[in-house]
TrEMBL record:
Name recorded for this polypeptide: Alkylation response protein AidB-like acyl-CoA dehydrogenase
UniProt keyword annotation of Kinase present: no
Stored CDD domains: ACAD
SUPFAM superfamilies according to UniProt: Acyl-CoA dehydrogenase C-terminal domain-like, Acyl-CoA dehydrogenase NM domain-like
Cofactor(s), by name: FAD
Alphabetical list of Pfam families matching this protein: Acyl-CoA_dh_1, Acyl-CoA_dh_M, Acyl-CoA_dh_N
Organism: Variovorax ginsengisoli
Domain Acyl-CoA dehydrogenase/oxidase N-terminal: 35-103
Gene3D superfamilies, A to Z: Acyl-CoA dehydrogenase/oxidase, N-terminal domain, Butyryl-CoA Dehydrogenase, subunit A, domain 2, Butyryl-CoA Dehydrogenase, subunit A, domain 3
Domain of life (superkingdom): Bacteria
Protein family: Belongs to the acyl-CoA dehydrogenase family.
InterPro entries membership: Acyl-CoA_Oxase/DH_mid-dom, Acyl-CoA_Oxase/DH_mid-dom_sf, AcylCo_DH-like_C, AcylCo_DH/oxidase_C, AcylCoA_DH/ox_N, AcylCoA_DH/ox_N_sf, AcylCoA_DH/oxidase_NM_dom_sf, Mito_Isobutyryl-CoADH
UniProt keyword terms in alphabetical order: FAD, Flavoprotein
Domain Acyl-CoA dehydrogenase/oxidase C-terminal: 298-390
Length: 411
């Protein structure tokens, strides 16, 4: 059965209303209007580093935050291809909003899978909350000492058993969207003789959570990716939703279902993040095309768009983005059909798409010169935003080493 099968009730609910709502929210007219609306204020959010609460209110009005929730919970049960269309439209307008939405989509995808280990009532609670109230969720994993857990090591965040639940203490970095999150999926370890590692589900409004407003980065400035400190935060016993021995979290450990779930999640992550950074490059391309038609130096007596050298480099940008579209569309189609790409292929997709997106924006800057670097125009912001594609897991060195080892082993 394809891996897109999601959490279902014993008796299936009618899907027609959910499908109709999904189709209405995904029309080109709706998505184009979202791009234009978000682009109009993106510069303000970037300059202020403020969180785009209004953008998420708009997304909720269109039913797009709960897009991936199953139909019987009020969502649309959307496919990866459909989620990709939403992320592309949002990211062309305001990419920090798209990043927070992507992280929520990835969490929804994971917990709606039938093989997910969370208690069923908590899965349903989180998914209903997103549909009814636009509740956002993200994973909190990176720490000052550990760095990214993708490279191994035990987290410093600790869960201690109490008489009626758990007490959480720890310090997390880069908690994307924390100013708008309702649920925190916190990566931590237990204080046990043989520690288990996994996820504690923490409500954002739980006492003892402190946000350190430290996010002041080059790009995606509106994402609110601040630090979070947990100081004796109390959660119920069942909110330790997925704890395992550390070795059981390895990509190839566990059952066949665990391995499939990991590959599926990896595929969704790289397609949606790749779509986000590709969309930033397309926004840069759109600005450049307008500039080249409008800019007519006196020495030339015609728009820059008439120069063969300019046309060649615009064609280079078009080629880069065309390849991105083919790769991302193919990966989404294959994943939705249950033919999930392996980890090496997913890593190469992420590396290729983000590298080409960055290259496309760099070419746009080269063609526009000082105009492109001016803060009066959005191109310099697109450049800062697209560079953030390099920092997401899996990072380039890990991707290329894995691909190199696979090629050498095949030989």
């Amino acid at each position: 059965m394809p891996s897109t099968t999601l959490l279902r009730p014993a008796v299936a609910s009618p899907r027609a209303p959910a499908l109709a709502a999904r189709e209405a929210s995904l029309t080109p007219a709706v998505l184009s209007s979202l791009t234009a609306q978000f682009a109009a204020t993106a510069g303000d959010y970037d300059r202020n580093g403020s969180f785009p609460h209004d953008n998420f209110a708009t997304l909720q009005r269109h039913g797009l935050i709960g897009l991936l929730a199953p139909a019987h919970l009020g969502g649309s049960g959307a496919t990866l291809g459909e989620a990709r269309r939403v992320i592309a439209a949002v990211a062309r307008g305001e990419p920090a909003t798209a990043l927070v939405l992507t992280m929520t989509y990835l969490q929804h995808r994971a917990i709606a899978r039938p093989d997910n280990r969370w208690p069923a009532h908590l899965r349903e609670r989180v998914l209903r909350d997103c549909v009814q109230h636009g509740a956002l969720i993200n994973s909190l994993r990176v720490e000052p000492e550990l760095g990214s857990p993708a490279r191994g090591g035990l987290p410093g965040t600790v869960g201690r058993r109490t008489a009626d639940g758990w007490r959480i203490d720890g310090h997390k970095l880069y908690t994307t969207g924390i100013e708008g999150l309702r649920w925190l999926s916190v990566w931590g370890r237990t204080e046990e003789p043989e520690p288990r590692v996994g996820v504690f589900l923490v409500p954002r409004d739980a006492p003892g959570i402190r946000v350190i407003a430290s996010w002041d980065h080059l790009g995606l400035r509106a994402s609110g990716s601040h630090e979070v400190v947990f100081d004796n935060v109390s959660i119920p016993l069942d909110h330790a939703v997925d704890l395992r021995p550390p070795a059981a979290w390895a990509a190839q450990a566990g059952s066949a279902a665990d391995i499939e779930a990991h590959a599926d999640q990896q595929a969704w992550m790289v397609v949606l993040l790749g779509t986000l950074y590709d969309a930033i490059a397309r926004a840069a391309q759109g600005w450049l095309l307008g500039f080249l038609h409008e800019r007519a130096p006196a020495s030339l007596g015609a728009p820059l768009a008439t120069l063969p050298r300019v046309q060649e480099q615009v064609g280079d940008i078009a080629a880069l983005l065309r390849v991105n579209d083919v790769l991302l569309s193919h990966a989404a189609t294959e994943t939705d059909a249950g033919r999930t790409p392996g980890a090496t292929d997913s890593g190469l997709l992420k590396h290729t798409v983000t590298t080409q997106a960055i290259r496309a924006v760099e070419l746009a800057l080269k063609l526009s010169g000082n105009h492109g670097l001016s803060r009066h125009h959005p191109l310099e912001r697109h450049h800062r935003d697209v560079l953030c594609g390099r920092v997401h897991t899996p990072q380039d060195d890990a991707v290329l080493v894995a691909a190199g080892k696979a090629a050498l082993a095949a030989r």
